[in-house]
Amino acid sequence: MANVSVYNIEGKEVGKIDLSDAVFGVEVNEHLVHMAVVSQLANNRQGTQKAKTRSEVSGGGRKPWRQKGTGHARQGSTRAPQWTGGGVVFAPVPRDYSFKMNKREKRAALKSALTSRVEENKFIVIDEINFEEAKTKNFANILKSLDVSKALVVLEDDNKNAELSARNIADIKTAKTNTINVYDILKYNTVITTKAVVAKIEEVYA
């Protein structure tokens, strides 16, 4: 069973917490992790690129000159691909890049990503993050005391002040237990969360 330190908002160690092996101690499946990242990036693509083929470009109905006797190469339309203003060969058309992973694969990939962060000592647990008011300086002080710059911060669903406090800090992204994903876990150097969120993650994903 993995065991990590618990810190307070001043960055001082105040205890230890045992992490469930069912979530934070699984065998890392790199293939599923890669699939999850590619899937998320593909699903985010708009797929709206479009260029016109020669059949869609207006004009070009008349043969520009007669077939023989001009000294020019034979041409059938001014909208052929080799002409300026002509259509595009094999032009891109709108398409859907998304593909699906089943629930078991998604869950296994997320557990693998969380386990990798624990193994690399990039998973920081804070006893609690409670602010009386939303203030960027409050959250910046926590990051400074923990010596963290680029981080994914997973908060409780109702912790609005902490979420607003972190909003304007560069390279910091907040998430909730139901919105964490493999791409964000791997994109940011460190995952910061609270004891309450760890319990919630273990409850949902174990």
UniProtKB/TrEMBL annotation:
Protein family membership: Belongs to the universal ribosomal protein uL4 family.
HAMAP family hit by this protein: Ribosomal_uL4_B
Assembly, per entry: Part of the 50S ribosomal subunit.
GO (cellular component) term, any one: ribosome
Gene from which this protein is expressed: rplD
Source lineage: Bacteria, Bacillati, Bacillota, Clostridia, Lachnospirales
UniProt keyword RNA-binding, yes or no: yes
Biological source species: Dorea longicatena
Record protein name field: Large ribosomal subunit protein uL4
One MF term in the entry's GO annotations: structural constituent of ribosome
